[in-house]
Amino acid sequence: MFISVSKVCLFFALIAQVHSAAKRRKKTYVELHSCDNSGIADEIASYDTVVKDIVDYVTKGPFKGKTYNELAKFVDNFGARLSGTAILEQSIDYMIQLTRDEDLNDIVTEELEVPHWTRGEEKITMLEPRVKDIALLGLGRSVSTPPEGITANVIVFNDFEELENAEEDEVKGKIVLFDPEFTTYGETVVYRTQSASKSAAKGAVASLVRSITPFSINSPHTGSQNYEDGVNKIPTAAISLEDADLIRRLVDRDINVKLNITMHSTFDTKTSRNTIIDLKGTRFPDKLVIVSGHIDSWDVGQGAMDDGGGLFVSWAAPVILKRLNLRPKRTVRSIFWTAEELGLVGAYDYEKQHRNESDNINFIMESDEGTFAPRGLAVAGSQKARCIIGEILKLFESINASTLVEDDSPGSDIAVIIRNGIPGASLHNANEKYFWFHHTEGDTMNVENPEELDLCAAFWTAVAYIIADISEDIPR
Ligand SMILES: [Zn+2]
User: Fold this and answer.
1) What is d(CA 318, CA 330) in angstroms, rounded to the nearest whole number?
2) Catalytic residue among 340, 341, 366, 406, which?
């Protein structure tokens, strides 16, 4: 299907709202003492030996280090895998072959149109009060500047309210810098996704945003942004915390800051694929327990953490079950989403293509917020569903991964499916430093840890297996 560019923009604006809403939701840690699992607790407890077998196989046995080593080979081979690029498609082919090499042959791919935005030359030079290069990364779908760049004075705002309250004359012809305090990613990311449109509406010629991160070594963080319909599309980029602080201090001293911004980019659409791998259930092959991560990444860094780790633990789940000859009653399906970073494009397509079989999704899982030491699951669903998942999580006390976080919209890609009332979860892990590396050149294999990846792979596999094998479906 071909989507016209204007439709694409509207579409992305809509899905970005869903995306950021998903990340904004409050998370609550719950004590599940109000659960009555008397009908199923004994059955779930009987999976303790299977859990031990999987954990031993992955952390001490033949699979030890395998997830890390395969991820490293993949990342070293392909590097960044931006939506719409040939490298992304080659990396998908590679994952299919890697899966076939494990004698898993139930693999299909589904084609869809994806955005293809490419970053060209990007440079910001502070011209006044002194000459200095400013570290930047253009934001996804940013338009180019004229060849000679845009030269203008800077006006700094803390938040959208300050921009709204400013006189149009103050903003017109200026470069706006949004310098919000980082609270949570979900709360702060709106300054990345919306500042270009809001600044343009006030007559700004370009917009900059303080990188959405609590920590920096002069490292700008890219990410998606959306132009609202009807606004002038102005170039937009993230700058480092250090440079944002510098500009802020100068402006606070009433010193004029003048910048030249030169940015080039292109935008069109290309064909990509979601990849679907099934380990067929023995009794209910139509019923699905889905594990997933996204295979695309930003063009900076190597996409090792975002989302190479999530991709490989989701690849590992059917592989480990196959190797251990564990065949659950329901199908374990592993999905490698495409084009997550440009707006959950693969997930939206899957939801649309498979809507009439959504009753068959028993539970859907996603790992896209790091694969540091696993702590448990962030779970969406009814209280009864959460009670059963909580009971299953008790089996992971030995690896300290028994926490159930109540989250009505966990994950990013799977939020598109969960909002239809399907229960699901994202990997809850010790990801306190995740946003230090997110969408930067620092997203490399050095962020990943072999032992933690083993624990994530074992946890992910065993949880999927138990949910796919127990006598009861996860209730809606
Ligand atoms: Zn991601």
Assistant:
1) 12
2) 340
Is the Cβ–Cβ distance between 274 and 110 less than 8 Å?
yes
- Mean pLDDT value across the chain: 94
175 and 287 co-located in one domain: no
pTM of this structure: 0.93
Across residues 372-399, what is the average pLDDT? 98
Q: What letter would DSSP give residue 339?
A: S
Residues listed for the chain: 476
Q: Name the domain boundary from 238, 265, 292.
A: 265
Annotated catalytic residue 391? no
Task: Report CA(99)–ligand 1 centroid distance (Å).
Answer: 22
In tens, the pLDDT along 10-69 reads 334 334 443 443 344 445 555 566 899 999 999 999 999 999 999 999 999 999 999 999
Does residue 126 surpass a pLDDT of 90?
yes
Q: 400: domain range?
A: 5-115+269-469
Q: Which of 291, 435, 419 is nearest to 18 (CA)?
A: 419
Alpha-carbon distance of 247 to 130, in angstroms, equals 11
Q: Is 476 part of a structural domain of the chain?
A: no
Domain assignment present for residue 474? The answer is no
- For ligand 1, the distance from its centroid to the CA atom of residue 462, given in whole angstroms, is 23
CB atoms within 10 A of CB 341: 26
Alpha carbon of 263 to ligand 1 centroid (Å): 25
CA of 369 to the centre of ligand 1 (A): 7
**Number of structural domains the chain divides into:** 2
Question: For residue 352, what pLDDT is reported?
Answer: 97
Neighbouring CB atoms inside 10 A of 159's CB total 13
14 with 50, same domain: the answer is yes
Answer yes or no: do 172 and 191 share one domain: yes
Beta pairing partners, 426: 366, 378
Residue 243 CB contacts under 8 Å (≥ 6 apart), including other chains? 134, 135, 218
| 231 lies in the same domain as 287 | no
Same-domain pairing of 427 and 388 = yes
Answer yes or no: is pLDDT of 303 > 80. Answer: yes
Residues 62 and 181 in one domain: no
Asked if residue 106 lies in contact with residue 280, where contact means CB atoms within 8 angstroms, the answer is yes
What pLDDT is stored for residue 9 in this prediction?
A: 34
Instruction: Give the angle subtended at the CA of 364 by the CAs of 359 and 370, to the nearest 5°.
Output: 165
